[in-house]
Amino acid sequence: MILSLKDVSVRLSGLHILQGISFDVAASGITVLLGRNGVGKTTTLRAILGLAPATGSLTFEGQSIAGQRTHRLVQSGLGYVPEDRCVFAGLTVAENLRLAALREPNYDLVFELFPVLKQRLSQTAGSLSGGQQQMLSLGRVLLNSHKLLLVDEPTKGLAPKVVTEVAVALELVSQRVPVLLVEQNLAVVRRLAADAVVLASGRVAWTGSATTLLGDASLTKSLLGVGH
Ligand SMILES: Nc1ncnc2c1ncn2[C@@H]1O[C@H](COP(=O)(O)OP(=O)(O)OP(=O)(O)O)[C@@H](O)[C@H]1O
């Protein structure tokens, strides 16, 4: 495992959003974090990154990271792709990438994974399709070497064909770097995820293989409230 949470709690505005959650993230492939709307998935990612005030134990590569400042966590190898596709709409693809680049950016990797970005370097990011913007968002993080990526709902609001493109992109990314993925689209989860963690009412309600979870219709319905 690369990341471990033990008894992590978060209170926001007096509400006990995460109530002592524990789970591990595998050192390779994709671990998917699931749960109904508002259950605390984004808050979990924010707690890992030091962006939400958490108590409990957080261990990254065997070292405690509880209470560490966000910039230190990023320096030590945590990458974050937030839900809102943080691209600068008025800047070109090349400019977006240049702004994200730290020491020794790996443009070759980004262009190998997402050739479309190389073809559209001089196009403004705002005029890219939703899927292309998501690839730019992932590309901006992948320019710099990370040991674990936290990716929040990358397929949200995308058309079905584009969802598949982003899923393929994530699959390629996960061959290079492990990913903790928040994803609501169960077809994407089925395609990508080896391990699943389900949150419910601020707690971990289930952990196991995504295939097992999605293969059990009544479990999926009771945990996620959806049939499939
Ligand atoms: N800064 C905040 N102050 C107060 N409450 C908050 C704050 N941020 C989030 N919350 C609440 O915490 C709960 C969990 O939110 P969070 O965004 O983590 O859920 P989520 O599982 O990612 O939801 P979704 O699937 O809808 O994106 C929600 O009820 C939300 O309203």
From TrEMBL:
GO terms for biological process: L-amino acid transport. The keyword Endoplasmic reticulum does not apply. Residues 3-226 form the ABC transporter domain. Signal peptide: none annotated. The keyword Coiled coil does not apply. InterPro entries: AAA+_ATPase, ABC_transporter-like_ATP-bd, ABC_transporter-like_CS, BCAA_Transport_ATP-bd_LivF, P-loop_NTPase. GO terms for molecular function: ATP binding; ATP hydrolysis activity; branched-chain amino acid transmembrane transporter activity. Keywords: Amino-acid transport, ATP-binding, Nucleotide-binding, Transport. Belongs to the ABC transporter superfamily. This is ABC transporter ATP-binding protein. It comes from Rhizocola hellebori.
